Amino acid sequence: MVLRGNFLVLSYSKKNQFMKPIKAIGILLGMTFTLGGFSRFVSPALAISPTRQQFDRLNAESLFERGTEKINRGDYRGAITDFDRVIALNPNYIEAYCSRGMAHFSLGNLERAIAEFELALEVAPHHADAFNRKGIVLAQQSNLELAVENFDQALNFDSNFVDAYYNRGKARTELGNLQGAIDDYNAAIKLDPNLAEAYGNRGFVRARLGNRQKGLEDLQQAATLFLDSGNIAGYQQTLAYIQMIQR
C-alpha cells in the first residue's frame, strides 16, 4: 500500500492515480491484497470430516476473502463485519487486523485504523506491512515525522518493500527533506521500474531543486508508464504537470 498524493493520485491498490489514497495533497496509498488458498488432495476412502479447528480455519479464510471483496466494492462497513468474524475465529489472523484497519481508514476513522495496526503488531511485532499502513494513516493526520518512523520500521523488517520506500519519499517531500525523498524514489524505482508514481514524484522534486530537465524526463517517463498501463487519468494528469513546468 502506498501513499500517493500531491502530484500522484490516491488509490487503494492503485486506484486514484499517482498514489494510493490519502488526500489531494498528500498520499496515495497503494495496497495489494494477497489471498491464500487451500488445495486438498484426499483419497475418497480416507476422507474424514474436518475437525472444529480445521472448520474454523476454513471459515476464517472464506470470511476474509469475502471481506476483501467487499473492500474492493467499497462496502467498508460490510467488510469490517466480516473481519470481526474472522478475528473472533482466529485472534492471530494478522491480515484481518490490517484489512479492518484499512476499512476504518476508508471510512475516515483514523484513530480506529491506527488501533487496528497496533493490534496486528501485538500479534506480529515485525510485520512490515502493518508499520507501512500505520505510517499512511499517520501521514493522513499530518503526523509526518511519526509516519516516517513507521516507514523506517517497515523497511527495517523488509528492505525490499517498494511501497514503504515510496511512502517515505512522499512524507519526506512534505517535510522538505527533498534529497531524502529522491533517495527513496530511487530505491522504489530500482525495485519496481514500472512504478509511474515514483517517477512522477521524483520529477517534481527534481524540478523543485532546480533540475528542470531531469524533472521533465521523469515526468515523461511517468506519462509513458501510465499510458502503457491504460491509466488515462494518470497520463492526462502528468501531461498537465509537464505543461505547468514547461511554462
Rounded mean pLDDT is 83
Helix/strand class: mainly alpha
Q: In one word, what is the shape?
A: elongated
The helix count comes to: 11
Low-pLDDT segments, ≥5 res: 4-50
Question: Can you walk me through this structure?
Answer:
This protein is mostly helical and 247 residues long. Helices cover 66% and strands 0% of the residues. The chain has 11 helices and no strands. It has helices at 52-73, 76-89, 94-106, 110-123, 128-140, 144-157, 162-175, 178-191, 196-208, 212-228, 232-246. Helix 2 (76-89) runs antiparallel to helix 3, helix 7 (162-175) runs antiparallel to helix 8 and helix 9 (196-208) packs antiparallel against helix 10. It is elongated, with a radius of gyration of 20 Å. The model is unreliable at 4-50 (pLDDT under 50).
State the gist of this model.
The protein has 247 residues and is mostly helical.
Task: Give the SSE layout.
Elements lengths: L51 H22 L2 H14 L4 H13 L3 H14 L4 H13 L3 H14 L4 H14 L2 H14 L4 H13 L3 H17 L3 H15 L1
Give keywords.
single chain, 66% helix, 0% strand, elongated
